[in-house]
Design goal:
Layout: H1 8-15, E1 25-26, H2 41-50, H3 74-83, E2 98-99, E3 106-109, E4 121-125, E5 133-136, E6 141-144, E7 154-162, E8 167-175, E9 186-194, H4 195-201, E10 211-214, E11 220-222, E12 228-234, E13 238-244, E14 260-265, E15 271-273, E16 278-280, E17 289-290, E18 297-301, E19 306-310, E20 315-316, E21 326-331, E22 345-346, E23 350-354, E24 359-364, E25 366-369, E26 379-386, E27 391-401, E28 404-407, E29 413-415, E30 418-422, E31 427-429, H5 436-442, H6 468-472, E32 481-483, E33 490-495, E34 507-511, H7 512-515, E35 520-526, E36 530-537, E37 540-549, E38 560-566, E39 575-586, E40 591-602, E41 609-614, E42 617-621, E43 627-631, E44 634-638, E45 644-646, E46 655-657
Parallel strand pairs: 2-8, 9-15, 9-16, 34-46
Antiparallel strand pairs: 1-8, 3-6, 4-7, 5-6, 7-8, 9-12, 10-11, 10-13, 13-14, 17-21, 18-19, 19-25, 20-24, 21-23, 22-40, 23-30, 24-29, 25-28, 26-27, 26-30, 27-28, 31-35, 32-33, 33-34, 35-38, 36-37, 36-39, 39-40, 41-42, 43-44, 44-45
Length: 658
Amino acid sequence: MFKRTLLSLSILAILTSQPLADSDPAGSLPADFNADNTVDFNDFFLFVEQFGQSCSNDCSALTADLDSNQSVTFADFFLFVEQFGQTFVPLLITPQNQTVALGSTLSLQLTPTARAPIDLAFFVGPLPLPTNARFEAQSGSFTFTPTPEQAGQSFSLLFGASSATQYDCYTIVITVPGQADQAGPSGLSGRILDAQTFVEEGIELPIVGATVSLLNTQISVVTDDQGHFALGQITADSLILDINPSTAAPGPDGAVYAGFREQIALLSGVENIVSRPFYLPRLETASSTVIIPDNITIVNNERLGIALNVPANSARDASGELYTGALTISEVPENLAPAALPDNLQPGVLVTIQPVGIRFDPPAPITFPNLDNAPEGSEVDIWSLDPDTGAFAIVGVGKVSGSQILTVAGGGVRQADWHLISQAVLISCAAGSLLDEASAQFGISPSQCSQDQAMPLDIPLETDKCSASDEAENDCDCTEDCADKSSGNLVIEHNLLSDPSVPAGFGLVYNSITANPEPIVNADATVSQSISSQLRVGGAAIGQEQFTNTSQLDENRDQSIRQTVSFEAKDLATGIYPYDYTLKSNYPVSAVSNTISGKVIVNNQDVTRFSRPVDGQPQPQMEKRPSFYQSAGGNILLDAKRRRQFHPHYGGRQSYPF
């Protein structure tokens, strides 16, 4: 996440505040008290009116408190002078409130203004985002597919952008209307376009007259003159969508299109809208080869260097009869694969063998080019889209032989559809130090660490005091400050003077880890030509994708490399946040990734306040955020209503962070 010096407190105050009012922009000039986008003498007069005032609880009216210390002093005046004469330049075109129905996906793009600088960083809050919401900090894109449980709810989110000198943000209310009729039928609609025209010319060319149906039902329609289709009266919640272009009008120069099948999950009782078009590639007719049942037939796409070896009497149609028609091998344009392609696979080449559904028994060996320059004898996975299930599955193993990848005996193409090769997924997670109660909280045993579960590194809530031996080795000063050489954590402790209102042994502790929290997430990855990683916390991408050069390591050996990422959590309230940590093995033309999901602890004591003692005990007063309460019996994470969330066992004297 980005760092800002003067503006960080302002952004933090907005992101951790109570629900915000609709559509009011928050400018990057805190001293612009009258909100006219300029800091001038009118703002100075307003500052003078508040000079010397202070507040205790609700400080919203004390707008001149620029340093957020609950009083307006000369320190605020110096901050005001720094902004005097500045004019606010809007960075974003004002986004509007949004409504998204069940069964559809909201896509929102933050758009910079013409005068905005090019070094913008986008942000959203508060985190975590609603379920099924995702935000890309680099591009400013936001998507949200609501669940039935979110029907009838509204979500207030703050979207913004910052440059080196200012920020601009707006609160947007996203409403999910109505409620799904779980007993009623559902609908499905979408659009079918020409893939090549979109890639080569950026034009959306509709495919007209294609037959769209749901397998094993009587529900079927053809696409209209804009490529749209709408299926209704659907009673199942999961079906196989079949797109058959044999009935479609020819494309440019008489082009014929490839069809495919995909499993579709539907919400009952609503119109399910597929927002991403279905892009159909054109058949490469130069590869068209007629199958002669009594002979071995080789279907070859010379341009791609891909060949299918069809054994004699092995190809059969849907009725079980020997197939005597033609087969083709065609390339699917990059990034326009069917939605069923697993998210973790980025193949160097994806092809479709047409027509869909022709079965091969025994499986037909397929040969791919060695585009990734994989070493001799190494193996890759062969994937196919199964037209019966509408999902991709591994159907064989390929072995590198020179410039080709040959199918190992026993594997191969079982049915004609969409096909690719990929390096094996060999990324595993690595647990940090585990706490028994954390294990119980997250449902993970301390010894378990699978591909989809990882424990967060626990953050010490109170650094252990050094011993006499530590002091002798100059590790720290046991009587005053303590700096941990391994972590860089600085602890400064102040013992309070004896007072009837303060219990004996009570002190204040500054802990740099909790005052400026930067939690750590880590995982292990097997060595490849290069490794990259991307962290997502609460649904929002954190920073840029990080790349690690592993060219000096031997990927042919059983080695692993630990990937570790820390993120700035100063804008997050104390709590437990879900994260997704994606690690990717990158090869010359392909990539394969794995996403590890877990929960990470954020202990942010940056704005802790104290109230007067009650019954002789200090009472932490949390301002709109949960926090860690520390006592001799342990440390307890409570939410804003003081309900227990997490209780790791750390002993120690009675102290509070400040």
